[in-house]
């Protein structure tokens, strides 16, 4: 499941739980471990630093046992099918499987074939719901609200699961969303998601509260969709001059990893208006909240 299926109330519950989790685990006294004795498998078929690490930290803080599945040493490298791998792991009786896969719909496929809870950590160019949730939490903490804020998502919209999840989440919580980038990187009819489309970044970021930069995903592109990285940076990169065209209190975000000097300059990424490191920290809180809510729901199911 992604943010497309969640209601605004469900999204708000996750954000509120993440906020509570932050407060509880910032205290010095020892906290109860609601996931003690639970098994979580991180099933990552694509490289990841921030997402996999934050899921691992989140699970360990809640007392769970964590297994990180290494695709390179798995039987899939010997020809085992994806379904057989999933069923084999499920036979080990995990409580939660966290899955990242290059194929859209892979998390749903797993959920349809096992009884354990499944969390989507990114499926192709479809969705990255936990990234969007941590972005929403960061925005709400910074501005005190999401409703009526103007948010510009800039860059490789066409290949970005982060963009799709954020569009669903932001619009459901009442934000006004714009996307901007080269015409070749913006899907046709994306305005049907209830957003505005710009091909001029300077116009797109005028008077916005948040500029969300996206990583230029060269590994997902099978054709030359723009002349060069230098030209992309010149016309679509966020630098101090461009940032000055947004609202005075506007903040900058980026899901990482950053191509410095391409999507965003280092002085902006490391500057006082950057929320990038706050996003990383909030990733742990959001993933703890999801683990907690899933464990609580599973407990109810067992109890009844």
Polypeptide structure, described:
There is one protein chain. The chain is α/β, with parallel strands linked by helices and about 300 residues long. The chain folds into two domains: about 10-125 and about 285-304, Aspartate/ornithine carbamoyltransferase (Rossmann fold, 3-Layer(aba) Sandwich), CATH 3.40.50.1370; about 130-280, Rossmann fold (3-Layer(aba) Sandwich), CATH 3.40.50.1370. It has eleven helices and nine strands. It is globular and about 55 Å long.
Please render the helix and strand layout as text.
Elements: H1 8-26, E1 39-44, H2 50-61, E2 65-70, H3 82-90, E3 96-101, H4 106-113, E4 117-123, H5 129-143, E5 150-154, H6 161-172, E6 176-180, E7 196-198, H7 201-204, E8 210-213, H8 229-236, H9 240-243, E9 251-253, H10 266-269, H11 276-303
Helix pairs in contact: 1-5, 1-11, 2-11, 5-6, 5-11
Instruction: Give the quaternary arrangement of the chains.
Output: single chain
Radius of gyration, in angstroms, nearest whole number:
20 Å
Q: CATH top level of the largest domain?
A: Alpha Beta
CATH topology type of the largest domain: Rossmann fold
Poorly predicted sequence stretches spanning 5 or more consecutive residues:
299-304
Taking the sheet with the most strands, its summary is: 5 strands, parallel
The N- and C-terminal alpha carbons lie at a distance of 24 Å
The number of distinct β-strands equals 9
In round numbers, the mean pLDDT is 91
Strand content bin: 5-15%
- Structural domain tally: 2
